[in-house]
Amino acid sequence: MLKLNSVRIAYGAIEAVKGVSLQIRQGEVVTIIGANGAGKTSLLKGIAGLEPLAGGTITFDGQDCSKLPAHRRVGMGIALSPEGRGVFADQTVRDNLLLGAYAVKGRDPKRTEELMEREYRRFPRLRERQNQYAGTLSGGEQQMLAMSRALMSEPKMLLLDEPSLGLAPLIIKDIFKAIQQLRDAGLTILLVEQMAMQALGVADRAYVLETGRVTLEGTGKQLLDDPKVRAAYLGTH
Ligand SMILES: Nc1ncnc2c1ncn2[C@@H]1O[C@H](COP(=O)(O)OP(=O)(O)OP(=O)(O)O)[C@@H](O)[C@H]1O
Ligand SMILES: [Mg+2]
Known about the structure:
The protein is an alpha/beta fold.
């Protein structure tokens, strides 16, 4: 479904992504783990069309989308739930969800209402707070909103950038439960996480990114059992 071929992303002289090639098949959950500054967010932004490529190509559903603007990629079925949530603080929960549906052209308004209902069922807290400004939500609620907003475009592939960042263990459990349910429903997911243990547990396959390069890949289980991964990312030996 998604194929990256030697993708490079640079900020001036700093090359954050140095020739990454990877593939994600339909229905797979793939995780990327890596230390701070490894280039994970840059890579997701490159896939979503929020950072231009300095080299390489990205194909989605057999179509080269390397140069397409972000909203066109949303239209193709790629949705990003960004790091740090990126919700619109001075808009209500409901309006944030509507904005998530905005890039999809020509949809029946009834369908938008159905999708909103689906998200309120997924995260009942969002229903309770639908008229509240997003900026007044707790960190966990903002994360739920970021995920739901991305899902409002009915993506074929969901990109999740550190959904558990800064959240309490109970909320992290809720977020991973939602990821598991999306996976069971057949959604293709690319998950970037610091919580390597949980991420590898939910993932079919995983890549390790180190200073802009893929240094290891395998099934979630293979990486969970890998001594180097355990020492560097799981804090266990
Ligand atoms: N807008 C930018 N301008 C300049 N440099 C940037 C920019 N965004 C990222 N970088 C640099 O690119 C490198 C990769 O950053 P990136 O945010 O992709 O890493 P990350 O793996 O997501 O890290 P983290 O785990 O901390 O979120 C870092 O060295 C960072 O300083
Ligand atoms: Mg990041």
